[in-house]
Amino acid sequence: MSDRDPLVLMRVPEAITEFLSALRTKKLSPHTIAGYQRDLHLVSSIAAGLSGVRETDLEVRHLNGRLVRTAFADFAEPRSPASVNRAWSAWNQFLTFCVAEGMLEGNPMAAVPRPKQPPKAPKPLLGDGSASATLLERIADGAREARDPWVERDLVVLALALVTGMRSAELLSVTLGSIGGAPGDRRIQVVGKGGKTRSLPIEPPIEHLIGDYLESRLRRFGLTTLPRSAALLVDTGNEPLQRGGLQYLVRQCYRYAGIHDQVQKGTLVHALRHEFATRLAERGASAHELMELLGHSSIVTGQAYVASTAREVRSAARGNPAYEVLDRLRPREGTAGP
Fold it and tell me: What is the pLDDT of residues 124-133, one digit of tens each?
């Protein structure tokens, strides 16, 4: 900054508050915001101690490369590379914000090295690849014992995750209006990380399953219709399913289906997303198709590619073995239902 543009004086805790407020326009999840806040205050507390002041008195202008680097070294010592990388990203965004707001002349994070992380290996369900089929079949047969059982809802939750690869937050954000297209060519509009949207193809077996579930929902709650704005997935009180409820439901389904020992450590709902991608890759889906279906960063810059390969992407998704199971579970015309 020039001599005629003095630095804006602000203490770090106040700057953190302003930064987190500014993040609201990015529509990040509350969990992500809480993580940013925790990492920012942990490192700033260490930096304040190194400077010999209380965190509430540490000023942004004093965050130079040496101080931030030393604070990160202390922060990193007892933590994993993933945790340090997460905090590094939060601080890089925060200090970039401080530069833009005139509190700093430059971002000192260039002086803070990031730990290298080995690529994370996919964590699908363990075994010979039949675990997802076992899960769907046993839950469809009513294996899950619950105070207020709802097989149609449980099956839709599992099936949607297995045939679309949606993240937990994406599953929970789907509304009835998110599903569009003609029968046989349906798609679900998904809002992913950072507010990025993508369109996921679904095939007739899941269309029928969703239809059966919605009919059971109308009967269960004595309704005649549902608005397009209604959440697709709800709890047994007809309230939108929440993150904790989804995790509990999926954990219970694993347990009662007898595959809980095939769920890898550190995964729960996300294991179904890994299962989705792994099984499609085994059946010939390309890396580009998987990136589009999973909503990775290339989805933004590759919209033209997505449009030009919609047929190939649908073909890749159609190869999902979960569809074969769902098709077998669907009662045939002229046969009595359960």
Answer: 888 888 899 9
